[in-house]
Amino acid sequence: MTETKKKQGLAALAAAGNGEDFSVIDAIGGVRGVIESMLPGFVFVVMFVITSDLKLTIIVSAVLAVVLVVVRLVQRQTILGALAGLISVAICLIWAWNTHEARNYYMYGFITNSVYIVVLAITLAIRVPGVGFLVEFIRSLPTEHFRAWLADWRGDRKLVRAYDIVTAMWIGVFALRLVVQVPLYLTNHVTWLGTTRLLMGLPFWALAIWISYLIIADPMRHHPKFKSGGEDEDDNDDKKKSDTQAVDEDEPNVDDMRTVEAANAEVVVKAADEGQR
């Protein structure tokens, strides 16, 4: 039997409206995904603290990131997540290598968090909440009639409100990371910076995606276009029953017909007897 592929990230949120079971672990990539995401950053911090050798730290972290991808290739598993992680780690390592400063390993994260804040804030300003846009895009890919697709989910006030709240929450998560980590970067506290980066990375992502699910799952399920088929089937069954009852009421009852015929026959017989008399 082939194992069903677990949905991750926003795809897991998009599936929540279909009544599927939601798992935070699956949404963040499973146990293996968690290890692969946190291990390069953890090794970078530990190696630098122990050796204070930036070049050695960068080399070990780079080799580890490559090994994680190679292992997936050998096992014939999907490498998209690991490959994305490798590219991200490579950017961080190259930045630190070129500047000869360990703290610049975390500069790429500052930039990406800042970009997320700006983009999501703009989506709220134009009343198209970014998280909702991405979730609905995954949920029902608008291959055509984009305006109708956009108007469909934006016309659901409860759903849009939920998406607004979740989008604002994600802005708060990205902003909190910057508020805590940028001062550590400016004061060159690499160890504390690396530690907070690990703690506010995947754990914060897991918490945020879980809260997002709690907020948007119910409005998603009640959106008219995506209501579960069970309700429609129940309505169809009720309609069929009522139609059947209507047909039964319109059709004459066989026993009643026989009673009427017997009564008519008796009347005819009595009339004949009276005629003979």
Q: What this model shows, in words?
A:
The chain has 277 residues and is an all-alpha fold. 78% of the residues lie in helices and 0% in strands. The chain is built from 13 helices and no strands. The N and C termini lie far apart (90 Å).
Residues in β-strands, percent: under 5%
Question: How helical, in percent, are the residues?
Answer: over 70%
Gross morphology is globular
Low-pLDDT sequence parts: 228-236, 238-242, 246-252, 257-277
Report on the biggest sheet: none
Number of helices: 13
The H/E string reads HHHHHHHHHHHHH
What is the radius of gyration computed over CA atoms, rounded to a whole number of angstroms? 33 Å
How many individual β-strands? 0
Overall pLDDT metric = 80
> Which secondary-structure class do the elements indicate?
mainly alpha
For the record, give the distance between the C-alpha atoms at the N and C termini, rounded to a whole number. Answer: 90 Å
Short description:
The chain has 277 residues and is mainly alpha-helical. The chain has 13 helices and no strands.
Name its key features.
disordered C terminus; 13 helices; 277 residues; mainly alpha
Write the layout of secondary structure elements.
Blueprint: H1 10-16, H2 24-27, H3 30-51, H4 54-74, H5 80-99, H6 107-125, H7 130-139, H8 146-154, H9 157-186, H10 190-199, H11 202-221, H12 229-250, H13 254-276
Helix pairs in contact: 1-7, 3-4, 3-5, 3-10, 4-5, 6-9, 7-9, 9-10, 9-11
